[in-house]
């Protein structure tokens, strides 16, 4: 997603709506990333592969 330099004006109703919609989309995307990450880790565990990074 790309943020424009002219971000919606939060003092106006339309701007507040746009910010709310963008926030909801970001929240859904974050949850999707979390679920996909957990599914990938579970799949690796089922395959007997190591899930941790050793530093």
Task: Give structural notes.
It is a single chain. With 55 residues, the chain is mainly α. It has a domain at 11-38. 62% of the residues lie in helices and 0% in strands. The radius of gyration is 18 Å and the shape is rod-shaped. The mean pLDDT is 85.
In short:
The protein is an all-alpha fold and 55 residues long. The chain has a domain at 11-38. It has one helix at 13-46.
Sheet/helix structural class: mainly alpha
Radius of gyration: 18 Å
Anisotropy-based shape: rod-shaped
Q: Distance between termini?
A: 32 Å
Extract low-pLDDT stretches. Answer: none
Largest sheet: none
Helix-residue proportion? 55-70%
Order of helices and strands: H
What's the number of helices? Answer: 1
In percent terms, what proportion of residues is strand?
A: under 5%
Number of strands: 0
Overall mean pLDDT score? 85
How do the strands and helices of this protein lay out in sequence?
Elements: H1 13-46
Task: List descriptors.
single chain; rod-shaped; mainly alpha; 55 residues
């Amino acid at each position: 997603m790309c943020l424009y330099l002219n971000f919606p004006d939060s003092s106006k109703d339309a701007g507040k709506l746009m910010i709310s919609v963008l926030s909801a989309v970001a929240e859904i995307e974050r949850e999707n990333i979390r679920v996909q990450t957990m599914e990938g880790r579970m799949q690796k565990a089922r395959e007997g592969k190591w899930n941790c990074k050793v530093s």
